[in-house]
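sry for the spam today, last one i promise. C-alpha cells for design, 373 residues
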C-alpha cells in the first residue's frame, strides 16, 4: 500500500490504497518461470514471420482490427460487430466494468479468482462483491446468484478458475444465467478454454447459442493457449451494443498491427498450436496425479496451471520452490499456483511438493481450500 501522504498530488484514496503491481521474477540460469501461466513453447516460425512483416510502424494500426474481427466472426458464425478486439482480454474486461459500473454499483465475482477483478472494480469506483469459492475451490454459483442486488451491474464468471483450476459446468452456468436480471452483464472469462478437457465444462459457443441471453459476453485471449502473451491481444464476443459501450471506454488504437497479424497467423496455424495445447493438458493431468500422490489435495485442474492449497504455509512453501529454481505464484495465506511449463520442470515440481508436504501438518495439505471433485 502507498501512503497517500507520500504522493505529491491528490489522488483518489481508493487508488492510493492499491498495492503497486508486482510482476513475478524473470527466470535466469536453469530456473523455470511458472508464475504467469505463459505458454512454454517458442512462437511458431509462421507467427514470427507475420510479426516481421508488419513494419509500417510510422502509421497507426487499424483501430478496430477489422481483419481479425472478420476472421473471428466467421469462426463463431456471427457478424463482425459481435466481435471486439482488445490489447489483451483484461483490457476488454476493464472496458466492460467501466461501461457498466460506477460508484454505488456492485460487481460480483468469485473469490479467490483472477487478481485483476478486485482491481478493476476499484478503478471503476464500483463496489466489489466477492463470493467465496466452495470447499473444492469451485465457483459457488447459487451463492453468487443470491448476492445479486438492485445495485448489481456486472458479474464475472471465470472458467476454468484462475488460480484454483476447476471449471463451471454448462448446466451450472445456464441455471445461473436464468437467475440474473436481463439488464445485468454476465462476463464469461474463458482465458483458458482451449486447455479444458472436461466435456461438461461451460463453453462460450454454447453460452451464446440462440442469443437467448444477450447480457452474456464471452472473453477469450491469444495470451495463453496461442502463446502471444507478449503482444497483448484478446477478444470479446457478445451483443454489438454492449461491445460498443465497452469500446466507448477504451483507449483507441491499443491493438498493434503486429498483434493483429500474429493472431491471424496463429489462427492459420491453429491445428499445430492445439497439438501443443493437448501436450500441456496431458502434462497437467500427469502433474496433478503425481502431486495428489504426495498428499496434496489438488483441486480439479482444467487450465494450464495447478493449485496447491498451502494455506498459512504458502509463503514458506513458495520459498522452497524458489530455492530450487521454480518460480511459482504464491497468494499469501491461501495457496500456490504453478503453471504447467516445460516438461523438464515436472519432476522438479513434484519432488519439491513432496518434500514440502512432509514438513506440513496433515491439515495443511488443503483441507480448507481444495479437494478432489
Ligand atoms: C491471463 C488471463 C486473462 C487474459 O489476459 P490477457 O493477456 O490480458 O489477454 C484473462 N482472464 C484470466 C482469468 C486470465 O488468467
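last one done:
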Amino acid at each position: 500500500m502507498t501512503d497517500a501522504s507520500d504522493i505529491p498530488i491528490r489522488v483518489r484514496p481508493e487508488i492510493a490504497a492499491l498495492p503497486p503491481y508486482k510482476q513475478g521474477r524473470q527466470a535466469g540460469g536453469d530456473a523455470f518461470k511458472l508464475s504467469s501461466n505463459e505458454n512454454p513453447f517458442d512462437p511458431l516460425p509462421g507467427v514470427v514471420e507475420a510479426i516481421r512483416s508488419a513494419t509500417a510502424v510510422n502509421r497507426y494500426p487499424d483501430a478496430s482490427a477489422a481483419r481479425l474481427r472478420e476472421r473471428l466472426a466467421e469462426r463463431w458464425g456471427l457478424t463482425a460487430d459481435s466481435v471486439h478486439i482488445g490489447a489483451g482480454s483484461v483490457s476488454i474486461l476493464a472496458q466492460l466494468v467501466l461501461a457498466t459500473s460506477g460508484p454505488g454499483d456492485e460487481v460480483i465475482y468469485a473469490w479467490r479468482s483472477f487478481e485483476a477483478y478486485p482491481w478493476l472494480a476499484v478503478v471503476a469506483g464500483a463496489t466489489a462483491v466477492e463470493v467465496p469459492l466452495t470447499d473444492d475451490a469451485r465457483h459457488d454459483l447459487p451463492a453468487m446468484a443470491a448476492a445479486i442486488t438492485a445495485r448489481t451491474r456486472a458479474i464475472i464468471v471465470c472458467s476454468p478458475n484462475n488460480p484454483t483450476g476447476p471449471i463451471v459446468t454448462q448446466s451450472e452456468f445456464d441455471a445461473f444465467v436464468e437467475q440474473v436480471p436481463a439488464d445485468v452483464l454476465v462476463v464469461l472469462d474463458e482465458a483458458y478454454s482451449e486447455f479444458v478437457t472436461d466435456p461438461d465444462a461451460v463453453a462460450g459457443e454454447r453460452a451464446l447459442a440462440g442469443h437467448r441471453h444477450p447480457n452474456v459476453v464471452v472473453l477469450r485471449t491469444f495470451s495463453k493457449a496461442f502463446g502471444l502473451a507478449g503482444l497483448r491481444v484478446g477478444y470479446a464476443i457478445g451483443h454489438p451494443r454492449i461491445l460498443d459501450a465497452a469500446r466507448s471506454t477504451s483507449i483507441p488504437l491499443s491493438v498493434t498491427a503486429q498483434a493483429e497479424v500474429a493472431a491471424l497467423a496463429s489462427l492459420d496455424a491453429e491445428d499445430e498450436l492445439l497439438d501443443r495445447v493437448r501436450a500441456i493438458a496431458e502434462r497437467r493431468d500427469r502433474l496433478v496425479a503425481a502431486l495428489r500422490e504426495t498428499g496434496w489435495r489438488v483441486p480439479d485442474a482444467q487450465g494450464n496451471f495447478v493449485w496447491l492449497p498451502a494455506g498459512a504455509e504458502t509463503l514458506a512453501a513458495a520459498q522452497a520452490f524458489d530455492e530450487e529454481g521454480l518460480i511459482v505464484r504464491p497468494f499469501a495465506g491461501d495457496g500456490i499456483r504453478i503453471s504447467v511449463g516445460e516438461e523438464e520442470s515436472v519432476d522438479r515440481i513434484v519432488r519439491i511438493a513432496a518434500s514440502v508436504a512432509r514438513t506440513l501438518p496433515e491439515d495443511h495439505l488443503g483441507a480448507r481450500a481444495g479437494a478432489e471433485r
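The chain has two domains: 13-42+271-359, 46-268. ok im logging off now
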